[in-house]
Amino acid sequence: MTSAQYASPLTRVRFRCVRRLLVQLEETGRNFDDFWASHELRLSQCLALRRFEDDFRRMQYSVERHLADLAAMTEGGDTAQRVDSLIRELEQFENEAQVSHVPRHAGFCTAEARKKAIYRGIWMTPPRL
């Protein structure tokens, strides 16, 4: 005879209770893992959207600032030296404008990344406020 046959009924009840609780714990762990996978995806989508919105606002501000700068460039050169100086200023302005238009997350803005993002639903998930 085994020791389990000699165990008291109370010990057997406790053993079954512990086994039942372990099964519940494993099920709760699986449910939490499923929940976390879903929630993590939503969080990463929201973060990607927030980064895109932030980049868009920065880009919009930059474009407005550069348009104002261009509108202020009305001077014409009277001499060849002044024309050369204005050309250098315009080239410098062009270089600065190109650098300021590169988004922080430029890799996310490629066509392939956009297709993947749309497929995963990043662009379709409205932000929760």
Give a written overview of the molecule.
With 129 residues, the chain is mainly α. It has one domain. Helix content is 77%, strand content 0%. It starts with a helix and ends in a 9-residue tail after the last helix.
Detail the topology: elements first, then pairings.
Layout: H1 3-6, H2 9-72, H3 80-100, H4 111-120
Briefly say what this structure is.
The chain is mainly alpha-helical and 129 residues long. Helices cover 77% and strands 0% of the residues.
The level of helicity is over 70%
**Separation, N- and C-terminal Cα atoms:** 66 Å
Series of H and E elements = HHHH
- What gross morphology would you assign? rod-shaped
Strand percent estimate: under 5%
Alpha plus pi helix count: 4
The biggest beta sheet is recorded as: none
Radius of gyration: 32 Å
Uncertain parts: none
Query: How many domain modules?
Result: 1
Average pLDDT number: 80
Question: Strand tally, please?
Answer: 0
Broad structural category: mainly alpha
Properties at a glance:
single chain; 129 residues; mainly alpha; 4 helices; rod-shaped
